[in-house]
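Example 4.3 (complexes with small molecules)
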Amino acid sequence: MAKVIPVGIAGLGRYVPEKLLTNADLEKMVDTSDEWIVQRTGIRERRLAAPAQVTSTLALAAARQALADANMPAEELDLVICATITGDQPFPATACRIGLDLGAKKAGGFDLAAACSGFVFASQVAAGLVGSGQFRNVLVVGAEILSRILDYTDRNTCVLFGDGSGAAVFTSLERAGRGEFLGGSISMEGGAETILALPGGGSRHPASQDSVNQRLHFMKMGGTKVFRFAVRVFAELVQGVIDKYGRDQIGVIIPHQVNQRIIEAAMEQLGMPMDFVFSNIDRYGNTSAASVPIALREAYDAGRLQKGKLVVMPAFGAGMAWGHLLLRW
Ligand code: COA
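Answer. The structure with coenzyme A bound is encoded below.
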């Protein structure tokens, strides 16, 4: 699809639920300690959705903020893409509920399942469709309620993740006036069904009494393998941007908020100081597809998106699937 129209980001939004789950709370639930969690991950607390909230509820709040930031009524949206692995239900798409609740009357929509890389991938799809002239205004929302698929008896996983949502409105650069889309990447390497996965509920292990007894409807993870993979691809993705544009062009790196140690190890490998990085992992943990857009909106609020400088967003996760989104602010 040839790029004919320069694309930008008109608005950003984020939402996190009110309820806090602190490391002290987790100490009462599993055999862990605040010290272990902070030292190994940098996470101090995360947010949990209220029982009445579903993923589209979280998505809606971030989407409304992004549309207000873009000064764009929902009726002007042509497409809604929801990046999630914890949608309201397996089908219909959560995007359909978001579109209805927003009042996006003429928009189409679909969900995109790429786990922690979801927002970065969906944003490239959105920018491609705007750039080709097929759609004018596309909303991308990354939203997750990971607490509904976490096993709060498994200390290997339950301390790492949280709930939240983030959103961005893609439109022509002329209308957006900022956040020029420069490109990105989408990569995958299959065969990770046992490394980082939700095994139950699909065609491999449909829901049954047996799948429930085996706890297959909870996330499973082999932490060390994921750690090494994440450091390697994070460093490679940023190095690719440096090779093409030069290090002095980079204003901020907003990585998938996976683990502070992974971020630090990758930055060390790159020989770059941590000042380049925007991180909020201490407050939210890993929110999968919501992590990059929550951090993007918070970096924007903190004045970390510098005019004319590059915003590099590397992401990586289950699949394995990884890639990056590159903007010039
Ligand atoms: N509290 C206390 N101990 C814990 C624990 C917790 N919450 N979670 C795991 N452990 C234990 C393990 O049971 C294991 O014990 P064992 O050696 O007796 O079997 C030990 O800690 C593992 O220690 P170590 O190998 O030093 O941990 P680590 O430095 O690799 O850190 C992770 C573990 C999970 C924090 C780390 O591997 C990680 O962050 N991986 C990436 C995971 C991730 O982010 N996945 C999502 C990617 S999108």
